[in-house]
Specification:
There is one protein chain. Helix 3 packs antiparallel against helix 9, helix 4 packs across helix 5 and helix 8 runs antiparallel to helix 9. The model has no long low-confidence stretch (mean pLDDT 87). The protein is an all-alpha fold. The protein has one domain. It is built from 11 helices and no strands. The longest helix is centred in the middle third of the chain and has 30 residues.
Length: 270
């Protein structure tokens, strides 16, 4: 990997910032190599920074995860159902479409969708969809109000995030808002359901080590990138949940629209 310290830091920060904000991490990691001509960071680096964001979300929600797992296991073994076991089942249902889409369509997307016009178009399209969802419904439902149909809808939406520029967190929060969830509940459900998807995506990328030539990366570099992306992602989750009820999604919509317009302008000017 022929990236210097500043480039490595920039990419790690970008991953930490964009994994959980509704602005697309995949798009922002692709753009430096397309627009700035940077050397592709390689599979090893991608897995490292995704591990960082996984550590962040698991650490932040460790208490919730423990309670959900305990309740789910008890229910699976014949115990009575409660809100926590129900939420665990809903997260499992919501994960299935994304897993299937990743296994079946990942190679197709990698070969045909990682381009500037696709990123710009999806950034614009799903920004407008997020704005519509945020403004057109009464958002009164909590996590405890969700049913399996809601979870399936959000899960199908998550499968669309394979397309660069869509934003996994953005499209799942959009779907949750269309299901009339309030902003904080939509964000929490999106963050919790990201855990198996990020883990599965990291494993899938790691299996490519044996089939693709991977670049030699120093262990210290990987550790630094993982830690930096984890710290940034943790702060991002924390402040996003604190602020989203007050600021709404409009700032992210505006950013995505500007990004899409700038990228289309760049594409047609070169």
């Amino acid at each position: 990997m022929e990236l210097d310290f500043l480039q490595i830091s920039f990419l790690a920060i970008i991953q930490g910032l964009t994994e959980f904000l509704p602005i697309s991490s995949s798009a922002h990691l692709i753009l430096p190599s397309i627009v700035l001509g940077w050397t592709d960071q390689g599979l090893t680096f991608d897995v490292a920074v995704h591990l960082g964001t996984l550590l962040a979300v698991v650490t932040y929600f460790h208490t919730d995860i423990r309670r959900l797992l305990i309740a789910w296991c008890k229910n699976l073994l014949g115990g009575s159902a409660n809100e926590e076991s129900q939420l665990a089942w809903l997260l499992l249902i919501a994960t299935i479409p994304g897993v299937l889409a990743g296994l079946l369509l990942n190679n197709l997307v990698e070969e045909s969708a990682r381009s500037l016009p696709v990123i710009a178009t999806t950034s614009l399209l799903f920004a407008l969809l997020l704005f519509w969802a945020d403004r057109s419904r009464a958002h009164t439902r909590e996590l405890s109000d969700l049913g399996w149909k809601d979870a399936l809808i959000i899960g199908v939406a998550q499968a669309l995030a394979l397309i660069p520029g869509t934003s996994r967190s953005g499209i799942t929060m959009t779907a949750a808002l269309f299901c009339q969830m309030n902003r904080e509940a939509a964000a929490r459900f999106s963050f919790l359901m990201s855990i198996p998807i990020i883990l599965g995506g990291g494993v899938l990328r790691a299996t490519e080590f044996g089939t693709e030539g991977t670049q030699s990366v120093q262990l210290a570099t990987l550790f630094f990138a993982t830690l930096l992306s984890a710290l940034i992602a943790f702060a991002c989750i924390h402040y996003f949940l604190k602020l989203i009820t007050h600021i709404g999604f409009v700032p992210f919509v505006i950013y995505r629209v500007i990004l899409g317009v700038v990228l289309l302008g760049y594409y047609f000017s070169v």
